[in-house]
Amino acid sequence: QVNLVESGGGLVHPGGSLRLSCAASGFSFRGYAIGWFRQAPGKEREGVSCESGSLGRTYYADSVKGRFTISRDTTKTTVSLQMSSLKSEDTAVYYCNAQRGDSNLWGQGIQVTVSA
């Protein structure tokens, strides 16, 4: 069975940093486009950052550009989202996503709360 497992969320003060990780279980991220999405209370899920599988191109939402960095490790089994200079508006449930062809996988989501 294939799935994604997120970790690294929690409570952080404004201006702080967190690193989210997403581990692939039962498969490798090789050839997959990977991405992070988030959903705040009362809002729709939005794309935060993604990286294409083959060309390695990255995308960041304007709201996180310059503060967040997406990466994948060389073993192709973990992807990460380094988040810095966090703001209260970054508070949300964050989801890892992996897509390749007809395969579209989602993690269970992990809470990130930015509060003083």
Largest sheet: 7 strands, mixed
Helix content: under 10%
Counting DSSP E segments of at least 2 residues, the number of strands comes to 11
Q: SS-based structural class?
A: mainly beta
Low-confidence stretches are none
Describe the structure.
The chain has 116 residues and is an all-beta fold. The chain contains no helices and eleven strands. The strands form two sheets. Strands 2, 4, 5, 6, 9, 10 and 11 form a seven-stranded mixed sheet that branches. A four-stranded antiparallel sheet has the order 1-3-8-7, with no helix packed on it.
Quick structural gist:
The chain is mainly beta and 116 residues long. It contains no helices and eleven strands.
Give the helices and strands, then pairings:
Blueprint: E1 3-7, E2 10-12, E3 18-25, E4 33-39, E5 46-51, E6 58-60, E7 68-72, E8 78-83, E9 92-100, E10 103-106, E11 110-114
Parallel strand pairs: 2-11
Antiparallel strand pairs: 1-3, 3-8, 4-5, 4-9, 5-6, 7-8, 9-10, 9-11
